[in-house]
Amino acid sequence: MSHYNIKHAVLTMIAVMTIVACRRNNENVAVKTPIFTIETLNGHTPVKDQGHGGTCWIHAMLAAIETDRIMKGDSVNLSPAFSVRRMLEEQYLRNVLCHGRSKVTDSGTAPDLLRLLAYYGTMPYDSYYHTATDDGRLTSSSLLARKTLALAEKAVAQRVSPMKYKPLLKTMLDESLGTLPHRIYMLGAEYTPMEFGHSVCLRDNYVALTSFTHHPFNTYVDLELPDNHHHNLFYNIPIERLVAMVKKAVESGHGVCWEGDISEKGFSFAKGLAICKAHKGNVQEQRQKDFFTASTTDDHCMAIVGLAHDGNGRQYYIMKNSWGKDNPYGGLMYMSEEYLKLKTVAVVMHKECIE
Questions:
Q1: pTM for the complete prediction?
Q2: How far is the C-alpha of 19 from the C-alpha of 26, rounded, in Å?
Q3: 252-306: per-residue pLDDT in tens?
Q4: First CA to last CA across the chain, in angstroms?
Q5: What is the pLDDT of residue 6?
Q6: How far apart are CA 63 and CA 256, in angstroms?
Q7: Choice among 10-14, 132-136, 289-293, 342-346 with the minimum mean pLDDT
Q8: Is 231 in contact with 240 (CB distance < 8 Å)?
Q9: From the CB of residue 13, how many other CB atoms can be counted at a distance below 10 Å?
Q10: What is the DSSP string of 270-332?
C-alpha cells in the first residue's frame, strides 16, 4: 500500500481526522455504538497493531490464512515480523545488485505475502514478534525500510559486495525486531521456517481477484497499482460475481484478504465503520470511473472474517484490521456491502471458494 496517500481531510467540531494509507488512524471520536446482528463470525487470531508503516498487506493476508487454518481445526497465529524481516533482507540484496535501481519499501499487495511465504516460509507469532515501542505500537516498518536503504546506498556508492554491510543489516534488524531463531518448536515437533510455512499453506492455494473493465473479464491481469512491485496477477471478474464469492467464502468459514480504498468520509476506524450510500447507477461503471480518476486507490488491506446486518437489514462485512484494538469493536470494523462493491480494489481467497 502507498504510505502517504491522503485524499480527504474531514473536519468536525470534535476532532480532525486524516486518513493515511495503511497507517493507524488516530481519530478518537465519541460516537454511539451501532447495533449489529452478527450472522457469521469466523475464527481469527487476536487483532494486532502494525504500528507506523505500510505492512497492512502482510497482516491482512496472514490473518486470512489464519482464519482458514482455524476453520480446518489447525489454529495458528503467524508472525508478521518474520515476513517484514525477510522482505527487507531481500530488498537490500536486490537494490545493491541492481546498482540502486530497485526499491526498498515496506509497501506491497496481498499476493506479495504469498510469495514471501513460498520463498522463505513463516514462523508462529510466539516464536518471533515485533518489539513494541513505548506507546505499545509495533516497530516502524517504514523506518526499518529507510535504514535498510541507507545501508544499500553505502554498498552501491562504494561498489562493494552486498555482503560487506550484511552484518550491519542483521544487527539493525535484530535490535528492531529481535534475534531470529533458526528452528521452530511446536507440539513436540521441530521445523525450519520453510517447513512450517509450507505446512500452513502453499502459494497456489490462493487466488487474487479484481474487477475493472479496462481489462477483459475472465483473464489474469497485471493490475496497475503503485505497490504492485512484483507484477502480481489478478483474475478479473464482474463485481457482482466477486462480491457473491466473498460472501460465500465467509459463510463457509474462510478468511478473505481485502484491499481497497479507505479515504472516503464514511471510513472511520474510531467508529469501526466503513459506509457509503448505495450507488443508484451502474456500479461497475462507477468503479471504473473512480479508479481512472484516482477516487478509488489501493490504500489498505484488512481480512474479512464475518458477516452482519443492521436494524434495517443492511448487509455488512466484518473486517479484522491491524491498527490495534482501540475502537468500539476491539479493532474489528463493519464495512457495508455498498462500500465493498464500490471501493474494493482486489481480494485474495482460497481457491476452494472460486466458482
A1: 0.90
A2: 9
A3: 999 999 999 999 999 999 999 999 988 889 999 999 999 999 999 999 999 999 9
A4: 28
A5: 33
A6: 9
A7: 10-14
A8: no
A9: 4
A10: TTTEE--PPPSS-HHHHHHHHHHTTSS---EEEEEEEEEE-TT--EEEEEE-SB-S-STTTTE
Q: Which residue type occupies 233?
A: L
Residue-wise pLDDT tens digits, 315-343: 999 999 999 999 999 999 999 999 999 99
- Residue 32's Cβ-count burial label (10 Å; 0-12, 13-18, 19+) is exposed
Calculate the alpha carbon distances from 216 to 36, 110, 220, 244 in Å: 38, 22, 9, 19
Please give the backbone phi and psi of residue 189, each rounded to the nearest 5 degrees, phi first. Answer: -110, 155
- DSSP codes joined into one string, 163-189: GGTHHHHHHHHHHHH-PPPS-EEETTE
Angle between helices 80-97 and 141-158 (to 10 degrees): 20
Any idea how long the chain is?
Answer: 355
Residue 204 · residue 351 · CB < 8 Å: yes
The answer to whether 262 touches 276, Cβ cutoff 8 Å, is no
Residue 341, amino acid: K
Q: Which helix (H) or strand (E) holds 210?
A: strand 206-210
Q: How confident is the model at residue 24 (pLDDT cuts 50, 70, 90)?
A: low
pLDDT exceeds 60 at position 307: yes
Alpha helices in the chain (DSSP H): 56-71, 80-97, 110-120, 141-158, 166-177, 193-200, 239-251, 283-292, 337-343
- Residue 198 CA to residue 184 CA, distance in Å, equals 13
Q: How far apart are CA 177 and CA 18, in angstroms?
A: 28
- Three-state secondary-structure class, residue 243: helix
List pLDDT tens digits, range 98-120. 999 999 999 999 999 999 999 99
Q: What is the model's pLDDT at position 5?
A: 38
Side chain identity at residue 224, one-letter code: E
